TrEMBL record:
Belongs to the HPF/YfiA ribosome-associated protein family. Long HPF subfamily. It is found in: Cytoplasm. Pfam families: Ribosom_S30AE_C, Ribosomal_S30AE. HAMAP family: HPF. Keywords: Cytoplasm, Translation regulation. It comes from Lacimonas salitolerans. NCBIfam families: yfiA (TIGR00741). This is Ribosome hibernation promoting factor. Required for dimerization of active 70S ribosomes into 100S ribosomes in stationary phase; 100S ribosomes are translationally inactive and sometimes present during exponential growth. Residues 130-183 form the Sigma 54 modulation/S30EA ribosomal protein C-terminal domain. InterPro entries: HPF/YfiA_ribosome-assoc, HPF_long/plastid, RHF-like, RHF/RaiA, Ribosom_S30AE_C, Ribosom_S30AE_C_sf. CDD domains: RaiA. Interacts with 100S ribosomes. Associates exclusively with 100S ribosomes, which are dimers of 70S ribosomes. The keyword Magnesium does not apply.
Amino acid sequence: MLYQITGKHIDIGDALQTHVKTEMGEMLEKYAGRPTDANVVFSKSGHEFVCEATVHLSTGLTAQAKANATEIYAAFDGCAEKMDKQLRRYKRRLKDHHRDRSEPVELMGASSYILAPDKDDVESEPDTLQPIIIAEMETRIPSLSVGEAVMQMEIAGAPVLVFRKEGKNGLNVVYRREDGNIGWIDPN
């Protein structure tokens, strides 16, 4: 498994890197089976340390967690505990999908854009209807079953997930509704 442990404007020592690799390795061995890589980023926000972890699993799912504390080790431990809880909740589903899937999830490339907010007064007419693009990034759209898409959305803590339904070419969307239920858009 590939680990990328970095710090934003702080130095990460060898002892912390060893601690992260050991703890993440033990946790992921229990639940995930074949994780491909883990990205752990430490930063400082005011007087607290922040730890953000992202783990990519061989099934194509991504687990994310974030925690903060006054001590850097406590921040990582809180983050690892959150990720452990997520993976424990979905352990049976992760293992079931892992058995059914002989190959990793197929990913389709796409462009992702960040648009500038409209700063004009709401009552005045805008000069143009074209939004201002302030960033452009590459993203990947996975080919998943609906169950896997819902699980991926919940593990990542995302409000919405765009995916390709297995066996079809069109894009599908699952999202969390205001009433707490999950919505699914499946175009014809």
